[in-house]
Amino acid sequence: MTISRRNLIKAGLAAGTALSMPSILRAQTSPDTRTVRMVMADLTVFDPILSGVDQTRMHGYAVYDTLFAVDSKGVPQPQMVEKWGVSDDKKTYTFQLREGLTFHDGSPVIAADCVASIRRWGQVDAGGKLIMARAKDISKADDRTFTISLKEPLGTLINILVEGLYLAVMREKDASRPATEQVTSNIGSGPFKFNEALAKPGASFTYDRNAQYVPRQEPPDGFAGGKVVKVDRAVWQVIPDQQTAFAALQAGEVDFVWMPPADLFPLIESDPNLELQVLCKGGTIMYLRMNFLQPPFDNVKARQAMLHLVDQEAFMRVAYPDPRFSQTVTSIFGNNPLYSNDENTGWYKKGGDPERAKQLFQEAGYSGEKIVILQPTDWPESSNASQLLADMLRKIGVNAELAPSDWGGVEKRRKSKGPVEDGGWNILISDYSGYNPINTPFLLANGEDAFYGWPKNDEYEALRAKWIEVDTLEEQQALAREMQGLWWDFVGGVLLGHSLQPTARRKSLSGLLEVPGSYGFPMWNMQKVSA
Could you tell me the pTM of the whole model? Predict the structure, then answer.
């Protein structure tokens, strides 16, 4: 995931009443039980190595298979791999592929494809870079077998392979393309085939069941187990207006709406044919990231001011108003029971502490300079939170200015490391899930190599580097406390709250798999009955 997987499907706030569906959409729909129609975010990037946004990742799940996948408990399980082992010195991992793996063009999946795919993924994924730095060699032994040979042991290697960016196994000729260049063929070995002929960018994308796919024999469990497709076709529809999408759901013209706005929850729950369901059980943490490279947030006092300014309950009320699906969070490891802790959280105060924030801005030498907040207008939750933040800052005398644009504009501008007068920025609001500090971008603090905002703290980074060296959960928990203690001193980012996002579906659609984390959902196992 990577973080910053934007939920662009939630464009436009619902007014609470359904509109009639356009006749063109009705003409395209069909009551058959072998086709599932889903209202999803617009899909603009198809390469899951190039982008970690939710919609690209879900496209990747459908089209590309992967070596390992996590079950509902977050434990990695073999997927394309039939069996694997590690040498006595813990430096050489050997993997053997399952039989019957073929790409959508009919060519067999061989070890060389896996090697090329790992190498491409390793160019950009944080954990993948770690593997590549420690790798002596990654090579095929025969068509079904490949090895990863390391210079030194890396006990978390299997976990790294399933975290961060989706390790989509592609044909060698596609995976040989640089990770910064998009692969456009959409030919994988996954349970669905992407129907290029029916693709209508900005409107709909079609996925057909891959009749040649050989699923694992285990029952489905999270992202792991047998990927059994129980329908002939899944149609990914883009309906930006939420009222129109809801009307289509009510009318049975679509089966599923990914991430409906909270305004519609009462209407959904009052309809006997509809149901809310939380598929991504880990949820997400909304946060604000300050730009460490530009004033005033190059000064730690200004960053600490933001920590005291934030009223998490207020942010959750404007972003995720249904209290069933949101809560406060003070640990950078979220509310995850494994690593969450209360180290150095004395700053937290219900309602925030604006007077303390104002004092810290003064101590930082702030004197009225403009502070630019990036505001994604097509992501309502972040847009609302950005407006609330600007209002909070203005109330303590800070010259806050919103920079509204669609998410594409935010993505472009957040790359700028220059001053605001040259197109730069000061504050970005986004979200993250996943709490492994090795490949969760939000948890990196390695300066200009870090995620946008580029936090830097060498002492914290030295602790983060130890994560792969410790062997027990108890050691990781102790390390998590140390890391968090430092984080809240240099303030690598500020948390705004934790949320779960339910989906809306017709009750005639069942079998949607609940998964750990917040990385979207898999399209296999779904099935329909007549309404």
Answer: 0.81
Q: Where are the alpha helices (DSSP H) in 450-507?
A: 458-465, 473-490
Q: Is 212 exposed, middle or buried (0-12, 13-18, 19+ CB in 10 A)?
A: middle
- Residues contacting 121, CB < 8 A, separation 6+: 49, 128, 165, 167, 168, 179
Amino acid at position 516, single letter? P
Is the Cα dihedral 279, 281, 282, 283 positive or negative?
positive
Which residues, at least 6 apart from 163, have a Cβ–Cβ distance to it below 8 Å? 127, 434, 436, 438, 439, 440
Tell me which of 209-223, 299-313, 486-500, 513-527 is least confident: 513-527
98 within 8 A of 107, measured Cβ to Cβ: no
Tokens of 343: 């180290």
Joined together, the tokens standing for residue 173 give 């000729």
Structure token digits, residue 65: 């298979």
Strands (E), 365-516: 371-376, 400-405, 427-432, 494-499, 503-506, 509-510
Looking at this protein, which amino acid is placed at residue 429? I
**Cβ atoms of residues 97 and 66 within 8 Å:** no
**Dist. CA 277–CA 504, nearest whole Å:** 6
The C-alpha atoms of residue 259 and residue 318 are separated, in whole angstroms, by 16
Q: Which residues of 3-21 are buried (b: 16+ CB within 10 A; e: fewer)?
A: bbbbbbbbbeebeeebeeb
Q: What is the DSSP string of 84-153?
A: EEE-TTS-EEEEEEPTT-B-TTSPBP-HHHHHHHHHHHTTT-HHHHHHHHHEEEEEEEETTEEEEEESS-
Kindly report the number of other CB atoms within 10 A of residue 211's CB atom.
8
Distance separating alpha carbons of residues 346 and 369, to the nearest angstrom: 29
Instruction: Give the tens place of pLDDT for each residue, 250-300.
Output: 999 999 999 898 889 999 999 999 999 999 888 899 999 999 999 999 999
CA distance 102 to 184: 19
Q: What is the C-alpha separation between 30 and 139, in angstroms, rounded?
A: 48
Q: Is there a contact between 497 and 312 (Cβ–Cβ < 8 Å)?
A: yes
Distance CA 407, CA 392 (A): 23
Contact assessment for residue 433 and residue 283, using Cβ atoms and an 8 Å cutoff:
yes
Contact criterion met (CB below 8 Å) for 525 and 209: no
Query: For residues 243 and 249, what is the distance between their CA atoms, to the nearest angstrom?
Result: 10
Q: What is the pLDDT of residues 211-265, one digit of tens each?
A: 999 999 999 999 999 999 999 999 999 998 989 999 999 999 999 999 898 889 9
- In angstroms, the CA 44 to CA 230 distance is 27
Q: Can you tell me the distance from the alpha carbon of 336 to that of 435, in angstroms, rounded to the nearest whole number?
A: 8
Q: How far apart are CA 489 and CA 487, in angstroms?
A: 5
3-state helix, strand, coil in the chain (%, to 5): 30, 20, 50
Structure tokens at 103: 């790409």
